[in-house]
Design brief:
With about 325 residues, this protein is of the alpha+beta class. It has helices at about 1-5, 35-50, 70-75, 80-85, 140-155, 160-170, 175-180, 225-230, 235-245, 315-330; strands at about 60-70, 90-95, 110-120, 120-130, 195, 200, 205-215, 250-260, 280-290, 310. α2 (about 35-50) packs parallel to α5, α2 (about 35-50) crosses α10 and α5 (about 140-155) packs antiparallel against α6. Bound molecules: protoporphyrin IX containing FE (HEM). Keywords: Heme, Iron, Metal-binding, Oxidoreductase, Peroxidase, Signal.
Length: about 325
């Protein structure tokens, strides 16, 4: 059970030498031929149990609030409602990947959802995790991973099967490599978060493709192996409150990496080259945490404002559909 819950969208927390695994049966280890949003909700519930009123993924988390201040570079270069209004309030939620409301915070991927509250009741959402890549080029790859975890939980498969599944599906390997050896952050606010997908932003002349990253202004800090053993399983929300009490606020710089013509927009399992231009588009400052202000929010990343467009990444519409189901269920206490 615990093992299954360490899987989240972008991060496969496996210490596997995938390249050394011989794949005997390609068909057995192919991703499911079809995947829809209901399949995801069903498998999340089977893996984690049914928790009425809670998110079916990223079940454990904490609300926060603050503001977004766009940079001059952002307002000069992009023509979007996101940057047109100067400083705006934001509602955030930090979370643990997976659908376990008791997730062990000494391991695993962290997530953040942010809603920008723009004038005229417009809202723009982003939701990212502490992994730069998605586990595969399609939603089907991720569904397959969850289904293998379910089989392990039921005693119908072993970790070796997961290794074979990843070995049989090359697009899943970059996320495993990227996450290999990385320790989880000591606080929600000292890790980098990645939007993973490509989006489009309107420029002066033409639209530009971008991927976003949030970088904590105070730097990254990771748990030591000693801390991983000694800490309780729950500490992140408390540390966020303590941080705000001590420092008054905590912030992230928001960067957009601008894709070149040849950089794919439809494959979240492929990193763009490191030399791509990065624009500092602004700062997110968190000033309060706790409470329920984020509970009635669906941080659907396809809810965007004028001047921003989702790309053709096939994972994006799957997310949108799955979030809508989870949102509807949790608000009606299912
Ligand atoms: C096919 C892929 C995915 C599926 C099916 C999926 C599904 C879900 C679901 C059902 C929720 C709960 C939504 C709610 O009840 O409001 C959720 C939350 C979340 N997901 Fe995903 N997800 C996927 C991919 C991703 C990716 C690629 C990222 C990061 C880039 C991500 C980041 C998050 C975050 C941060 C939350 C928590 C949002 C909050 O605090 O409300 N997910 N996901």
């Amino acid at each position: 059970m615990k093992y299954a819950l360490s899987i989240s969208a972008g991060a496969v927390a496996l210490a596997l030498a995938t390249s050394s695994v011989a794949v005997a049966d390609d068909h057995k280890y192919a991703p499911p031929a079809s995947a829809n949003a209901q399949d995801f909700i069903a498998v999340f519930k089977e893996l984690n149990g049914v928790h009425p009123g809670l998110r079916k993924a990223h079940a454990k988390g904490v609300c926060a609030a603050g503001k977004f201040t766009p940079s001059a570079a952002a307002t000069d270069r992009f023509n979007t409602a996101l940057f047109d209004s100067g400083e705006v309030p934001v509602t955030l939620r930090f979370s643990m990947g997976g659908g376990n409301p008791e997730a062990d915070e000494r391991q695993g991927t962290r997530g953040v959802g942010i809603q920008f509250q723009l004038p005229n009741n417009q809202q723009h959402n982003i939701a990212g995790i502490t992994s730069a890549l998605f586990s595969g080029s399609t939603p089907n790859h991720f569904l397959g991973l969850l289904q293998w975890n379910l089989k392990i939980m039921r005693g119908e498969a072993t970790r070796e099967d997961i290794a074979k599944y990843i070995a049989a599906n090359p697009s899943m390997q970059a996320a495993v490599e990227w996450n290999k050896g990385k320790m989880p952050s000591t606080e929600y606010t000292n890790a980098d978060y990645y939007g993973i997908h490509a989006f489009w932003a309107a420029g002066e002349q033409q639209r530009e493709k971008f991927r976003w990253q949030l970088v904590p202004t105070s730097g990254n800090e990771y748990l030591t192996q000693e801390e991983q053993k000694s800490l309780p399983t729950t500490f992140l929300a408390e540390r966020l409150m303590e941080r705000l009490e001590a420092d008054g606020e905590v912030s992230f710089d928001w960067h957009w990496t601008i894709g070149a013509e040849e950089d794919p927009t439809n494959d979240p399992s492929v990193l763009w080259p490191e030399d791509r231009e990065r624009v500092h588009v602004g700062k997110i400052t968190i000033t309060a945490a706790g409470g329920e202000n984020c509970t009635p929010i669906n941080f659907d990343p396809m809810r965007v404002v004028r001047g921003i467009q989702p790309s053709d990444d096939p994972v994006l519409p799957m997310r949108s559909a799955a979030y809508a189901i989870s949102f509807g269920q949790r608000l009606s206490n299912q």
